[in-house]
Amino acid sequence: MSERIRIAVDAMSGDLGPRVAISAAQKFTAKFPDVEIVLFGNEQQLITYSSLKKLSRQRISISNATDVVAMDEDPLHALRHKKNSSMWLAIDSLNKDLADACVSAGNTGALLAMGKYLLKTFPGVERPAICKAMPVEQGQTYLLDLGANTNCAPEHLHQFSLMGKILAASVSAEPRVGLLNIGTEATKGTDVIKSTQDLLQQDSRINYVGYVEANKIFTGEVDVIVCDGFHGNIALKTCEGTARFIAKKIQAAFKRNWFTRVGGAIVWPLLKQLRSELDPSMYNGASFLGLQKVLVKSHGNANKKAFMQALIVAREQVIQNIPARIQRELSNQTISFQQ
Amino acid sequence: MSERIRIAVDAMSGDLGPRVAISAAQKFTAKFPDVEIVLFGNEQQLITYSSLKKLSRQRISISNATDVVAMDEDPLHALRHKKNSSMWLAIDSLNKDLADACVSAGNTGALLAMGKYLLKTFPGVERPAICKAMPVEQGQTYLLDLGANTNCAPEHLHQFSLMGKILAASVSAEPRVGLLNIGTEATKGTDVIKSTQDLLQQDSRINYVGYVEANKIFTGEVDVIVCDGFHGNIALKTCEGTARFIAKKIQAAFKRNWFTRVGGAIVWPLLKQLRSELDPSMYNGASFLGLQKVLVKSHGNANKKAFMQALIVAREQVIQNIPARIQRELSNQTISFQQ
Which domains does chain B have, with CATH numbers? Predict the structure, then answer.
């Protein structure tokens, strides 16, 4: 690591293209004097956009990439054929010690495949787990896995607990770890979940608090919630769907008639602040835990603010030295990974 | 069925006790002249409360039950030992043709066990599926199963699709049925989900629209979303958790200082209406589909309005003759249920 924290940005991926990544990089470098950004993508396009928008490129460099991974591209196809893509080159720059972390808003499957192939997982980790801070009343609750591992054995879920604990250590001295289930009684859940509970109860490194139901994701009662990628993905998408539904309802309510419009205008500053507090972009930036380097996924349709948040997550993980701490934790693991 | 629609109410269960059930019954009978209620529970307590509150008992009768199923009671224990409970007697009254439907806010597991034991499922249905209308932008989306069937074979999910379709037929002529998955690509999902998709695509009775992600629960793009009870339960609880989190944030925002309090007072009528539109009680009332009679579960902490909504759901299903229509649909089923 150089003195500055260097972040490689896949500037071409994501639904909104390079302008989001460039603007976010500019805002990010302006805010944090200790960071440097390398934008990977079509050089001409990136330079033209920066010039058009008169963006400062202080501590921002551009590295040309002739190809792009499409958002709907088959991950295996991307892995085999997109070695000149902005995604590949951005990730690979970590191996060449050109950057300390990589951020991309691209195709999750491709990012997972390339991340695993290029950055490698730590011994014993079959696939990285996707982990994200969820909106909670106080503090942060980390939920993992969010979709990388559809089928998990108890040993995987145990491993997720250890990795999630490391990430949560920055917000809580002794992170409370819960296991997602459909009830808190011992009889509830699948065999995999019951066996996982046994493993977690036996592991003195984990402050295991028991089964938690999905509504506890948002109360801040636990710091880490562990589940397989299928369950995590359902929870994440349901949360997004519910929040969007409520936001639309609120918007429609204030537009109903002239009276509600006047009311809306009066409380506008309040609504604006509320919206910013509830803004999903505040929670952008999912980490691929178990990889040997820091790789952060920004939401595909992230705006500038959201992309900036993903950059902040990446910077924080470099500062916290998360991969090395995960490696240390997992090397203490005595459980064999046989399936 | 008598001329009136008779609903048996387990008045003693639920977190808030009999007062909610009584008040809801009173409001319900006042609103619908075609209904009759039988309250099952401690006769003295029910009479005393009605008298104290000066509630009209027109078309409301009371049937004494000496026992109660506790909210945290083991369902099998309840099934074996609580034959004098308000829950048991209320459900059993359907077999004695004393009522056309039963509503309870009690222990879901006990309700499921007693419902299955007393009312029986239709041939081919191993366990009923719990189904509920979710809040959507327009119309209604029915989600099932919400927790009765943790492990499902493709044949079960196929069956849920047929049952859900019947329920949704009241809101859509040709209900669009989606299968909950973590992506829409054919490669996504577990083997069970992929095999279910094959079954649904082959069944001409079902207007199958493909895989849907959990955020689609709230958009109204599909009328029925089918999943196993584990996934449905996660979606339901995540939705509840998110909505509660946002509601708390809004409340806190308007209480921040005198300025926001004044703003809140000005838009109070609007907030009140918004709250009523988003009120979870509007969506109360989960059905146990696949049982031979109408059994509706009210949320454990339902208030009067929410309990009333569960009564409305029960009334509607009697009018629509849902069990008979499910029976007809399932008897046309050519798929064998071998596992």
Answer: 1-128+290-339 (3.40.718.10), 129-285 (3.40.718.10)
